[in-house]
Structure formats: C-alpha cells, structure tokens
Amino acid sequence: MVTAKKKPRARILCALVIAAFGAVPLVVNNPYLSSDNQDQLISAWIGSGAGLLVLGSALWLLSGPRRRGEPLVLTESTGRLAYAGIMVAVCALLLAGALVSRQPTVMTSLPGLLLVSPFMQLFVDGKAAETTPGAARRRGVSGH
C-alpha cells in the first residue's frame, strides 16, 4: 500500500516528467519561431504550442487537482502503473527519434502529448479508489 507521503511525491514526479517532455519542443523549436521559411515557421509554432499545452497539463497536475471536491489519489491499479511505465519508455524512444531528425518538426511535441493521458489516469478520486473491488479485497470485505 502506498503511504500518504508517497502520493504527493508520485503526483510531483509525474508532473515533472510531463514538464520535461513539454519543455523539449519549446527549446528545440525556439530558434525557428522567427524563421523566414514558412514551413519551418509553421512547424515551430505548432510544436511550441503543443509543448505549452503539455506544460499546462503538468502545472495542473502539480496544483493538486480535485474531482467533486475530493483530492485525487494515486491508483493502486498495477495495470495503469505498468501502462504508464511502458508509455514513458515508448515516448522516450519517440523523442530520441524526433531529436535526431531535421528540425524544426512537430514530432518533438508528440511524446509529451502522448504521456499526458496515461499519467492523468494514474490519479483517481479518493472515494472511487475505496469502492473498487480490489480495494474492498485489501480491506478484507467481501461482496458476497
């Protein structure tokens, strides 16, 4: 079971990972934001805009989001945790591939956009976490 101290740490860690993936397109595309080449300019602005969306998601997660007045807590679903871990590895490979390609490219923002959803799914509302069948089994309560 995850202790109360580790839950904010997990939220902060997830937000920092998302922020790191969101900052990459801003840094990579910044030199091209005032380019004379129209294709480079469009790619740079789209990539930077997507990076800002990812950074906004990270800030929202850092702020300690709430759902229906209840704070969100880290899920105990091993499936969701495993999926998030796999997505981090896949997105890291995508980002490495995007950084090797010719810049500017919108591809640098894709890994961050892909990571937002699995990381947000790691946090559920506290009441919902207590009513899941897995939580009931851990407390020793049977549905039969």
Notable traits:
144 residues; mainly alpha; 3-stranded antiparallel β-sheet; 3 strands
Q: What this model shows, in words?
A:
Helices cover 67% and strands 7% of the residues. The chain has 144 residues and is mainly alpha-helical. It has one domain (6-137). A three-stranded antiparallel beta sheet has the order 1-2-3. Strand 1 (66-67) and strand 2 (70-74) form a beta hairpin. The mean pLDDT is 84.
In short:
It is built from 6 helices and 3 strands. The chain has a 3-stranded antiparallel beta sheet with strand order 1-2-3.
Gyration radius, in Å: 19 Å
Report strand order across the widest sheet.
1-2-3
> Number of DSSP strands?
3
Q: Report on the biggest sheet.
A: 3 strands, antiparallel
What is the secondary structure topology, with strand pairs?
Layout: H1 6-29, H2 38-62, E1 66-67, E2 70-74, H3 78-100, H4 110-120, E3 123-125, H5 126-131, H6 133-139
Antiparallel strand pairs: 1-2, 2-3
